[in-house]
Amino acid sequence: MTTSAPARWTAALPVRLDRRYLPVLGTFVVLALMLVVGGTRYDNFLTPAVVSNLFINNAHLVVLAVGMTFVILTGGIDLSVGAVLALSTVVTAALLQAGWPVPVVLPLAVGVGTVIGLAHGLMIHYFQVQPFVATLAGMFFARGLCFLIAPESIAIGDPAFVGLASWVQIAGQWRMTSSVLIALIVLGLAFLVLHLTRFGRTVYAIGGGEQSALLMGLPVARTKVLAYVVSGTCAGLGGLLFAMYSRSGYSLTGVAMELDAIAAVVIGGTLLTGGTGFVLGSVLGVLVLGLIQTIITFEGTLSSWWTRIVIGVLLLVFVLLQRALSLRRT
Amino acid sequence: MTQQTPPPVVEMTGVTVEFPPVTALDGVDLHLRPGEIHALMGENGAGKSTLIKALTGVYSPTAGTILVDGAEHRFSGPADARAHGISTVYQEVNLCENLTVAENIMLGAEPRVLGGLNWRAMRRQAAAHLRRMGLDIDPASSLGSHSLAVQQLVAICRATVGDCKVLILDEPTSSLDADEVAHLFAVMRSLRDEGVAILFVSHFLDQVYEVSDRMTVLRNGGLVGEFVTADLPAAELVQHMIGRSMDVLEAAEEAAERAERPAGATPLLQVVGLGRKGSVQPFDLDLYEGEVVGLAGLLGSGRTELARLLTGADRADVGQARVSGRPTRLRNPRVAMGHGIAYTSEDRKGEGVVDGLTVRENIVLALQAERGWMRPLPRRQVDELVAGYIERLGIRPADPEALLRNLSGGNQQKVLLARWLATAPRLLVLDEPTRGIDVGAKAEIQKLVAELAADGMSVVFISAELEEVLRISHRIAVLRDRRKVAEIDGDGASMDRVVDLIAGGGAA
């Protein structure tokens, strides 16, 4: 009588379902439900155009969430990604305005993120600064630097950059921009790195127990620093994608975007304590966030702030769900 | 001495480790030979862990030489030591529960394909290693889904991957039951027969005698000597370890004489039908002043769960409790403390001492919590109190400002006891107070329990060691499968009777 429902389902499935996948599966179910609900409520909702836009509008967030997943898997956090994204857009726009060629600007913009991420990693590992504090400092630093470079929004008119940004592949109603392509490549790389390299498995091991990982002889120091480098680099790249999307660089972009990234990761089933979660889940999380926005737009009458309320509720539900799952495990 | 001794694979000579001003290890020698199980014996704080850490490069010795296969080595850390064939398995399983069994065994020596992990080969190789250990588990399952004993064996499995010449097992048996220990020993013997040198650290003398060929005894950071196990009687070994005779133990036994309980006395704590779903079945228990009640049962029989209900650490969902005859709900530890009920958890590190605080701070913690932050204890009173307990319990080092994490397990336990004694409890619930601590400290704690009871305190004593429970308890509650199955008088209890009850054979 007391057998829990999920246990019975898993027992009934022909393939044994590892409970590690349950949170991600939950996110997937929520996403599917939202699509079904949206599709029945509104005309023109379940169309390739809407789905394409979902990806196009959130490509930068996908990249941020992928980077954030690395950090959170180690049990850390990166609060700087929103500010680093803004810095990257500003650097891109300012350098292009100054007439630098695109092949130089792109790596520089991404490199800014890499350097800041490296600084975080070194501070966190070698000076034992709390990740929260180190990346908070990085956030203020990056945001301040934005204003130092350009207090006003800079429009990007460089033809090569605009050309790159407006590259699009069209198949029927499906559209894929260069941003989406880059985001998907990042996602694929991240997936391979996390699951098929020693670095990736060490990221998980650190999240499972840093002391244990150390005693297992795994390269903890290097891995931890690298996780922040990955997150910083992703933030830099995210900035580039956002600059392509908005055709401008502006110091006030991405305010609180780090929180969206964290929310996406958590909704995607990754535990904030580290060690459990999947990068694919984080992407599902981003899609859930984006879909909420889409639905509210379709609803028309609702204030867009409802997005925030729904995200808040969803976050709570997912955290409680994870709590219930981990409780049953013990 | 017909046996030929092969040349040692590890030769430590005159190894000294200093943490100024403390000399943790003073000129110690250790020789590990291939195909031998070598026991490292000593009280807590004798320097066993320090010696292991000096060998594996966690600490760097200030003097002495370490030869591995005849060549001098100073390892930079466990990973470096492991690369030279010296693997360590620690008391706490230091693996990652969130990873799969296969990863836990193979990471670091994983098979690769095209620069990435080869999961299939990894699982296959892990399965082969597991079979060697006599373990039949799915390498793709996550480690956290297995029992502690299996995890321990997986840890050993990991240690023996690749070229393992020396295997160091630090207290591998402290959380295993008898069958699991037997399994572990079988694995150890087969590794020994393959020519691995094994260093075995354990507090259980009978286990050491069962499995080891030779032993090195340490005391207070110094070397007592190396002995052939078969030539050293247990009593002599204990004397070597504690450096004094066993009269402390005997004193404890004498002190266990019970003050006669007056007829019709009100129990200090009386519980009726107290229970909690999934934790322990409803039980009755009366606890009187001046009495030690032992809880006997196997690991997982509900000993700790019962203690947690008595002390409000877990909330009961059925049953009543009366303190001195008055009905009470023991909702949380704070309420219990208000009634004079103190609880020391079996999880000393996690739920007991605060290892980043000093001895002084740890001792006054509970007393100060009871007084509230508005009324801080005067510093002079604190110093007197702390000095008093350090003296009375023999806490070493006798320094109120020492950080708890630098104390040995036994001394941490004493500090924990002092913390609760400082609140002058009427009922003291001790969950495994003697686990993982040495013979000397064990005897001291047993003696203290007897004294406290003689002074009128009520004590609930939990221990996995039946002998100990039998020796100091006036009454014994026996648990089996999360149910209290019997309550017997300590005086009339024989080991066999209790074992029968625990095993489920006796009259329940």
TrEMBL record, chain A:
Gene Ontology cellular component annotations, sorted alphabetically: plasma membrane
Coiled-coil blocks: none
Transmembrane segments: 21-42, 54-73, 80-100, 106-127, 134-156, 176-196, 225-245, 278-298, 304-321
The keyword Nucleotidyltransferase appears for this protein: no
Membrane topology listed for this record: Multi-pass membrane protein
InterPro entries reported in the protein's UniProt record: ABC_transp_permease (IPR001851)
Keywords annotated in UniProt: Cell membrane, Membrane, Sugar transport, Transmembrane, Transmembrane helix, Transport
One of the record's GO molecular function terms: transmembrane transporter activity
Subcellular location(s) of the protein: Cell membrane
Source domain of life: Bacteria
PANTHER family in the record: ABC TRANSPORTER PERMEASE PROTEIN YPHD-RELATED-RELATED (PTHR32196), INNER MEMBRANE ABC TRANSPORTER PERMEASE PROTEIN YJFF (PTHR32196:SF63)
Name recorded for this polypeptide: Simple sugar transport system permease protein
Automatic annotation (TrEMBL), chain B:
Record carries keyword Repeat: yes
Entry-linked SUPFAM superfamilies: P-loop containing nucleoside triphosphate hydrolases (SSF52540)
Main localisation: membrane
Bilayer disposition of the protein: Peripheral membrane protein
Residues of the ABC transporter domain: 10-245, 243-506
Recorded GO CC terms: plasma membrane
Record Gene3D superfamilies: P-loop containing nucleotide triphosphate hydrolases (3.40.50.300)
Keywords assigned: ATP-binding, Cell membrane, Membrane, Nucleotide-binding, Repeat, Sugar transport, Translocase, Transport
GO molecular function, one term: ATP binding
Compartment(s) where it occurs, according to its Swiss-Prot or TrEMBL record: Cell membrane
Protein name: Simple sugar transport system ATP-binding protein
Species name: Promicromonospora thailandica
